[in-house]
Amino acid sequence: MATAYSDIQPDKFEPSETHPQHGVIIGGPAARAKRIEYGILLSTMVIGSLGALYWTLTHATGWVEWSAFLFGYVLINMGVGIGYHRYFTHRSFEAGPKMRLAIGIMAQMACQASVLKWAADHRRHHAFSDRVGDLHSPYIDGHGKKMSKWKGLGIAHFGWLFDNTTSDMKVYGKGLIDDPQVLWCHRHRWEIAIFSSIVLPALWALAFGGPEHIIGTILIGGFFRNFFFLNFVMGVNSVGHVFGSQRFKTKDGSRNNWFMAWMTFGDGWHNNHHQHPRSAYAGLMWWEVDVNGYIISLWEKIGLVWNVQRAPKYVRDADGTWVQEKKPVTSGLAESLEVESPESMSLDDGGILFAKGAKTKAPKTNTKVA
Ligand SMILES: [Zn+2]
Ligand SMILES: [Zn+2]
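The joint structure predicted for all components is written out below.
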């Protein structure tokens, strides 16, 4: 993909009132537009979900409505986990234009704003992770002030959607702002959201039931499906930084949480992910179920995606500490990071930013971790 990576990341950053942190813009029309967009998306999901509750209590619903819910849930789960997150944010594999467009549309069917915004915001999360500048830390607010546990969870879950900051695309939009597929998805985000929430469930109802199922299927298989899943995606930001276990001593509160991982097809192995953000696999052990990782492997096997990034393997040493396996990984992350390329990413910035000509070494084997 032809991308001009140079001079996107400024060498020097001078804090100012509107840019107190690198790549974080305070106020202005972008913040206003963000609040309006998230307000529309969230309120329609909530109102639609209340409608779904009413409909379920007052009408007979059955497999037509709930199969639409399940089908859509699988689709948007893949879209968010593989599309928004592993591909567009972290570039954990490579894909051709058609595939990029397909996973971009699939991601935006979750109605969580455009690929461009989602990925830029998430890169910012990795850049600051529970420090000032992180847009959804459950620990500190935008001024670095410690928050109470419940307030923090609330801010990290939904509160941050309505804050006064936006992510600077010049810093966090690298590889996205000049990708025609990303821009197409960004421009058509409202059409994709309407297709996903209304048109697709209505067509499902007509195909498998009849016109009398249309309203129920839109409410349950459209709006409620989006809202239900949104809580797990936001839950990785809130719950996933507070509750669960930490295999790695990352400089943040990220946790591995099996329940969140099952519900998000893998992204709930969030401590693993913060340790190895570029890995296409959030589950690092065989028992860490990572459905989206399995799908990426399948796509790799049939040639739809390539250059899939893999974290090093970990084993327990004699005193039970997790250490990297001595045998170097022959393909994937370790090897690819040795290669000097305009697209290689630095581990120092959380592995999310493109650095022109960056030369990053693979982590040493047998590094002790928690
Ligand atoms: Zn995180
Ligand atoms: Zn991430």
